[in-house]
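Now for my pick.
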Amino acid sequence: MVLSDRTIKEEIAARRIVIEPLDEECFQPASVDAYLKGKGA
């Protein structure tokens, strides 16, 4: 499924998608950039 940034934001507001912590700078036209860190990072 492909969601637009607008739809992603709507789904986050409705709590159907949860991204924590959420940084507005991570939004792209049809995605959210995510960075994974291990313990101690």
About this structure: Residues 1-26 form one domain.
